[in-house]
Design a protein that fits this description.
Order of helices and strands: HHH
Helix content: over 70%
Shape: flat
Strand content: under 5%
Number of domains: 1
Number of helices: 3
Structural class: mainly alpha
Low-confidence stretches: none
Radius of gyration: 14 Å
Length: about 80
Amino acid sequence: MNLGLPTSRRQVEVIDQWLREMSAQLEAGRSSSRRDTNESLLTIHQFALLEVIRQTGVQCFERGDFLRRVLNRYTELIIE
């Protein structure tokens, strides 16, 4: 999901709606194990965060880069 240049709150509203819908679908259709569902939820949350980070980086590259590094390290720690 690439929403282009962040010019208004609409981009975050779209991401929020997408995240809520995807989370609800995963929770409702839980035919997998809880662990598989949690891994899928982690993936969609990371995807949403990466889009917010991308949008932040458009306005301030250094802030976006910092947030991306924090998220990458956080993800590594969770997976280990």
